[in-house]
Specification:
Elements lengths: L1 H27 L6 H20 L5 H9 L1 H26 L3 H22 L5 H22 L4 H19 L4 H26 L10 H24 L5 H6 L3 H13 L6 H23 L15
Helix pairs in contact: 1-9, 1-11, 2-4, 2-8, 2-9, 3-8, 4-5, 4-7, 4-8, 5-6, 5-7, 5-11, 5-12, 6-12, 8-9
C-alpha cells in the first residue's frame, strides 16, 4: 500500500513539473505586458480559481482554523511570499530572454532540496546526494569565474522554490486549503497594485488589452493552480529529496524551449556549468534507481482525494 502511494505521488509530482516546464510558452503570449502586471493578474486569478474550487469542499472549518492559528497562518503566509517571489523572477526571466538562466535555477533547485531535506527533515541523502551538491556548487563557481557574474536568477528561483517545497512538506493542511490561503493572503496586495498602475500611475495595460489578452489573464489562474495543486499533493506522498530530483522534466523542457524555439545564446562557460550540474544529477539518479529507492519514502501524510 505504501509503495503504491509512493509511486502515485511520484507520478503526480512529475506531472506538475512537466506542466511547469511548458509554462514559458504561455507567458511568452503575454510578453507585451510588463512582468509585474502579469504576476499580479496571476495571483488574482489563481485566487478566483481556488475560491471556486474551495466552494466544492465540505470542510470550510479547515480554512478557518488556518486563519485562527497564528503559527500555521505565518507558515502559509511564508509560502505565499516565497511563491510570489518565484513567480515574479521567473516571468521576468522568461519574457526578458533569460529562459536558459531560469532553467538552470530549476536544475539547481533539486540540490537545494536535498540540503534542506538533510538539515531540516533529517533525511539520509547518501554519498550520491553530497556528490550532486558538490557538482552543482562547482558548476556555479565556474560560471561565476568564467562568465564573471553571479547567476542570481537561478539562485533566487532555486532557493525560493526549494524553501516553498520544504514548507509544503511540513504544513499540516491539504493542498487545496493551503493554496487557497496562500492566494488569499497575496491577492489583496496584487489587486491594490493593479488598481494603482491602471488607475493612478497609468503604467498598466489591463484596461487597454484585447479579449485574447484578457482570456490569458483569466486562465493564468488555472495554469498556475493546477500544477501547484499537483505539487502540493505529490510532495506529501514522497520524500522531499526524491520530489526535488523528479523535477528534471521541468528545466529540461524549459532549456529546450529557450535554445531551440526562442534561440537564446548559451555561452561556453554556462554550458560547462550545466554539464557539471547534469553530471551530479545523473549520479544521484543512477544510484537511487540501482538501490530501488526512486519511489522515495512516504511522508506518512496522506492527501485526501
Amino acid at each position: 500500500m505504501k509503495n503504491s502511494s509512493n509511486l502515485r505521488g511520484g507520478f503526480i509530482v512529475l506531472a506538475s513539473y512537466c506542466l511547469w516546464g511548458l509554462l514559458p510558452v504561455y507567458w511568452k503570449l503575454l510578453q507585451h505586458i510588463k512582468s509585474s502586471e502579469i504576476v499580479a493578474h496571476r495571483i488574482v486569478w489563481s485566487f478566483v480559481f481556488m475560491l471556486l474550487l474551495i466552494m466544492f469542499k465540505s470542510a470550510p472549518g479547515t480554512i478557518v482554523s488556518v486563519f485562527r492559528n497564528i503559527k500555521l497562518f505565518a507558515l502559509v503566509s511564508a509560502c505565499s511570499f516565497l511563491v510570489s517571489i518565484n513567480w515574479a523572477v521567473y516571468i521576468w526571466a522568461v519574457n526578458s530572454g533569460h529562459m536558459v538562466d531560469a532553467s538552470m535555477g530549476y536544475y539547481i533547485n533539486p540540490v537545494v532540496s536535498v540540503l534542506l531535506a538533510f538539515f531540516f527533515l533529517k533525511e539520509n541523502i547518501g554519498w550520491e546526494g553530497w556528490t550532486a551538491v558538490l557538482f552543482a556548487l562547482s558548476g556555479i563557481i565556474i560560471m561565476i569565474v568564467k562568465i564573471g557574474n553571479v547567476p542570481w536568477i537561478a539562485l533566487i528561483l532555486s532557493f525560493s522554490f526549494a524553501l516553498y517545497g520544504l514548507l509544503k512538506k511540513i504544513l499540516p493542511v491539504d493542498a487545496i486549503t493551503g493554496l487557497f490561503v496562500e492566494t488569499a493572503v497575496s491577492a489583496p496586495v496584487a489587486i491594490l497594485y493593479l488598481v494603482y498602475i491602471n488607475c493612478y500611475s497609468g503604467s498598466g495595460l489591463t484596461f487597454h488589452s484585447d479579449a485574447f489578452t484578457w482570456l490569458l489573464f483569466v486562465f493564468a489562474g488555472v495554469v498556475t493552480a493546477v500544477p501547484l495543486l499537483l505539487f502540493g499533493i505529490g510532495t506529501r506522498m514522497v520524500s522531499l529529496s526524491i520530489a526535488g530530483f523528479l523535477q528534471y522534466a521541468s528545466p529540461t523542457l524549459t532549456l529546450l524551449l529557450g535554445v531551440f524555439i526562442y534561440r537564446e545564446h548559451v555561452p561556453a562557460g554556462k554550458l560547462f556549468s550545466f554539464a557539471l550540474i547534469w553530471t551530479g544529477l545523473a549520479i544521484f539518479t543512477a544510484v537511487r534507481i540501482i538501490r530501488g529507492g526512486i519511489s522515495g519514502k512516504s511522508s506518512g501524510i496522506e492527501e485526501p482525494v
